[in-house]
Amino acid sequence: MKKSISVILLLFSIAGFGQMNPIGQFDHHQDVGNPKLPGSAVYDEKEQTYTVTGAGINMWAKADQFHFLWKKIKGDFTISATIKFIGKGAAEHRKIGIIARDELTTNSRYADACVHGDILSSLQYRPTDTSNTYQVVLSSYHPTDIEFSRRGNLFTFSAGTFGENYKSVSKEIELNEEVYAGLFICSHVEDVLETAVFSNVRIIIPVNPDYRPYRDYIGSHLEVMEVATGHRKILYSVPNSIQAPNWTKDGKHLIYNSSAGLLYKYALADGKITELNTGEARSNNNDHVISFDGTKLAISNHVGERRISTLYTLPITGSDKPVQITSPDSGHSYLHSWSPDGRKLIFTGQRKGQYDIWAVDIATRKETQITNSPTLDDGPEYSPNGQWIYFNSVRTGTMKLWRMKPDGSGQQQVTFDEYNDWFPHFSPDGKQILFISFPKEIDPTTHPFYQRVYLRIMPASGGVPRTIAYIYGGQGTINVPSWSPDGKKVAFVSNSKL
């Protein structure tokens, strides 16, 4: 009996047992270091946000005090969030961020990605249980989006303001293989409580480095995001691969494919999922596109032992007998867009020993070559007014966005920075383009799975792209048009081991 009482008392004193309640994605939340004013945390399930309050003395001291939402994580991880303080509080001193610790004791070894007050962000760490804290300054501005990653003992802090790309700093820091990792807040003034809201919180467990593309998959999140604010919500999560959501014209459903080759409809009103009938076309890839009038769907289905991607059309409601449009004898056809009048499909075609952009007349099945380049041209999409086709091409050595007239004339480069840009998608009013940007380090002829990628947006008329989402994803994230009919939201897929 005495032993049981001792264990209970230990839980109260060390682990903050009275506050240890699962919350959202985290195992527990609690005060560390017994601050004078107790902290708290509330999860808003509808908005998927965390409102966190905490006090505590200066975390530069050996005796840390702060409020902590944590999850025990073993091995590599990434945690990201959008942060916003509520009220002025002790603005000069307050501290907020993402932290990983060996223990929940106040003097534990740790590494964190933090924002101090309103002016400074840095990666901080305590290398031993008896040492003071050290820091590597990232920047002298107040970011709204932060990310903290561990790969072995390399910890990386990345941060940016909404609309900009990340800046990053890394440091080798030795911590336990399994750590307590999560969100924290500290006022640095013991008589002051600070409050902040964490949104877009993602705990990402990455793919194994030796994974085999198109054979080894990790989990998927079906997400929607407000374009103006960047606020994201996860609608549905599965431990396997789902990809490429289309938003139906009536605004009621998202259509996506699974790695097993089937298509599904997700009802936005109630989350109900139903299989979309595609008849014998049951080996579909992530190139499926809805016609501009919303009545039809075109798909790319793998045919025969050689699994040649072949185009079909069917009603948006599904069909036992989809209509075959291209021939597998011609080579692979990877669909990307209907013409606004519904008479043609444009696709990336493997013809004449190379991949170019082609159009096919749906009624006659006649194919017309639009580009002719020895390097890869891909991802073509008509503008809603039918005056342009935007596409991505590696002809400059980096995958960039281009545009041309529907007959292939007047080809012009649209994006110019160091990233590899894929899949331009027009907003319903034709004024903006959403696209995905891969790191400059990848092979520009590929758009691989499981990368740190950006979703970016720019005027269709040209300009400097703005970053609206930081995602762990890539192949299957936005291969197809995914704007909501009102142009206020987009749908996409992100990834993590689940």
Q: What is the CATH class name of the largest domain?
A: Mainly Beta
The geometry reads as elongated
CATH topology grouping of the largest domain: Neuraminidase
Question: Strand share of the residues?
Answer: over 45%
Total of helices? 1
Distance between the termini: 40 Å
CATH superfamily heading of the largest domain: TolB, C-terminal domain
Alpha-beta content class: mainly beta
Mean pLDDT: 93
Q: Rg, please?
A: 25 Å
| CATH second-level architecture of the largest domain | 6 Propeller
What is the topology, as strand order, of the major beta sheet? 1-4-13-6-7-8-9
Number of strands: 37
- What's the story with the biggest beta sheet? 7 strands, antiparallel
Q: What percent of the residues sit in helical stretches (DSSP H or I)?
A: under 10%
Segments where pLDDT lies below 50 for 5+ residues?
A: 1-19
Number of domains: 2
